[in-house]
Design goal:
The strands form two sheets. The chain has a seven-stranded parallel beta sheet, sandwiched between helices. It has a five-stranded parallel beta sheet with strand order 2-1-3-4-5. It starts with 8 loop residues before the first strand and ends in a 15-residue tail after the last helix. It is about 35% helix and about 15% strand. Helix 1 packs across helix 12. It is built from twelve helices and twelve strands.
Length: about 350
């Protein structure tokens, strides 16, 4: 049982890094939240660390399966506050049955993620990462560093939520023709932004750059796979800053080996759990597919850092604090944040 007065909410924060702690502590001044910061991820085995907490705060690679949720509920946890937008790693049905409220961060900074997607694209296309390494070794040769003008080329945006729309607008500003696909197209925005909606097959066929910005659902899982890659223009660049399982890694590796793709930029990976956000520099990487991807000179991987700006961290912390404070009646749940 929780022994704190009702005006104080104890929150166990799993999988925390220094930037998480700093942002949450700054946002929670005068909110009556007692933080218990934990370095390890939430799993069924580690859920007991949330004892005496009314709320748990988790990130994208924490495991919220039914067995884990049952342990949390049995300890008196009332709220699960996600420090992210997606909730595909939560057994939502189990949470409802266990009467656990689940909240998310519906919006933090679409500009942060969109700008990172464009940074990956620019770096890949102009081979900036390779040039940087060469110059550091006093190799000033330009051989092998030829890119192409984005101006006049076609970009395909799959998913036109807030992040997809910002990405489309940035690329349109570069002078690119922008095609888009979404199950729920926003035609008014497209008209104002100069974007054309198209079927996925047309988008894949006509685009020089394809950027993924759709949530992970049963329908979008492996939206990039062997048969859809075959539709893509030879020499195109693929960017994924959304969810790792949108891309079939085995098919992606084959496409890279065959030379169909000129470049791939990934901020997410389908098996990133336990790898991304961790320092494994002194260990052997046991994920053979990720290790293979890292051998390609035209693959650029960042470890789920697209969200990592001061503005995004502040908004994530503000929303999370407001949702936890709602347990003590100090605030209401942020609009659009309640999952269950």
């Amino acid at each position: 049982m929780n022994t704190h007065p009702s005006s104080v909410v104890t929150a166990a924060v799993f999988d925390t890094k220094p930037y998480d702690r700093e942002a949450l502590q700054r946002a929670s001044a005068n909110h009556g939240i007692e933080w218990h910061f934990l370095d390890f991820r939430l799993t069924q085995d580690s859920a007991s660390a949330a004892r005496n907490a009314r709320a748990v705060c988790v990130f994208v690679n924490d495991e919220l399966s039914r067995p884990c949720l049952e342990v949390l509920a049995a300890q008196g946890v009332e709220l699960i506050a996600l420090r992210c937008t997606g909730s595909n790693h939560v057994d939502v049905d189990a949470a409802k049955q266990l009467k656990l409220t689940v909240t998310r961060v519906p919006v933090y900074s679409p500009h942060a993620v969109a700008e990172h997607a464009v940074a990956l694209l620019l770096t890949l296309n102009r081979k900036t990462h390779r040039a940087f390494n060469r110059v550091r070794e006093l190799n000033f040769s330009l051989n092998g560093l030829v890119g192409f003008d984005l101006h006049g080329k076609t970009a395909g945006i799959i998913g036109t939520g807030k992040i997809g729309r910002v990405t489309a607008e940035i690329l349109h500003g570069f002078g690119m023709r922008v095609l888009a696909y979404d199950l729920f197209p926003n035609h008014e925005w497209a008209r104002q932004a100069g974007v054309e909606y198209a079927e996925v097959s047309v988008l894949l066929r006509d685009s020089d750059v394809i950027s993924l910005h759709t949530p992970l659902t049963a329908e979008t899982r492996y939206i990039i796979r062997a048969d859809t890659i075959k539709l893509m223009r030879r020499g195109s660049i693929l960017i994924n800053v959304s969810r790792g399982a949108l891309v079939d890694t085995k098919a992606l590796i084959q496409a890279l080996k065959s030379g169909r793709l000129a470049g791939v930029g990934l901020d997410v990976y389908e098996e990133e759990e336990g790898i991304f956000f961790e320092d494994l520099s002194g260990e052997v990487l046991h994920d053979d597919e990720l290790a293979r991807l890292l051998t390609f000179p035209n693959v650029l991987i960042t470890s789920h850092q697209a969200f990592l700006t001061r503005e995004a961290l502040s908004e994530i912390a503000r929303t999370t604090v407001a949702n936890i404070s709602a347990l003590a009646g100090q605030a209401s749940f942020v609009e659009g944040s309640v999952v269950t």
